[in-house]
Design brief:
Belongs to the DODA-type extradiol aromatic ring-opening dioxygenase family. The protein is α/β, with parallel strands linked by helices. The protein has eleven helices and twelve strands. The protein has a six-stranded mixed β-sheet, sandwiched between helices.
Amino acid sequence: MTTLSAFNNFTDSLPEQEQLMPVLFVGHGSPMNGIEDSEFSRRWTQMAKEIPTPKAVLVVSAHWFTQGTKITAMDFPKTIHDFGGFPKALYDVQYPAPGDPLLAKETAALIHTTQVELNHDWGLDHGTWTIVRHMYPNARIPVLQLSIDYSKGPQYHYDLAKEIYDLRKKGVLIIGSGNMVHNLRMVAWDKLNEVDYGFDWAKTINDKFKSLIMDGNHQPLINYSELGKDALLAIPTPEHYLPLLYTLGLKGNKDTVSFFNDKAVGGSLTMTSVKIG
């Protein structure tokens, strides 16, 4: 077993790099994407081949919604199966990536907006491992999670993300994991297998989000509740949307923007994902 000191030495060797690490927002959709060979999971695998191999991965997942801000700081985070009603094969999945306690401390120290708690109880929830196991199946790259403080508004999260920008200079891949359009109450379950099936309102607001992202016009995205009825249908609760704001907050002036997995599922969900840099 690798010792903690080995990981400390590893983290100490994260000098600033010449190449800035890109940032991703990933629409993670159903947990089944974690084990299925779907068009979405195949694109995650391909994305890992297109970008530099990270020194570590930090995920802001829709599924770690907490009072205050926390970061996983254990040596070996557990695989969390935070869902119900799925096949046994999904619950059998283990993603044994190491953590990185020193990197967790360094990340917490970068954030001055709030006191960040070093957490030893959580792990990697399905907003993280369903994606990362396709990208880095050997599970050798350290993976951490940063929680979302549910007591704070969208502007707070966008601004907090800017404080961890320096991690991009050190080869850390930061991923926001959620869904731009995520209304489970309105899902057309009988249409889940139809290709790119989206209700008119879902496609309209998803296109609006994409246009604002491409234009670098982030303020309307932060103030999404002012974008009208379609936005409120797309975001009935904020947890799946806020990871997008973390990704956008990490955008630099020279970063390019592109989209992938840009499809609707079941009428009221979109898998639309963003690559910055």
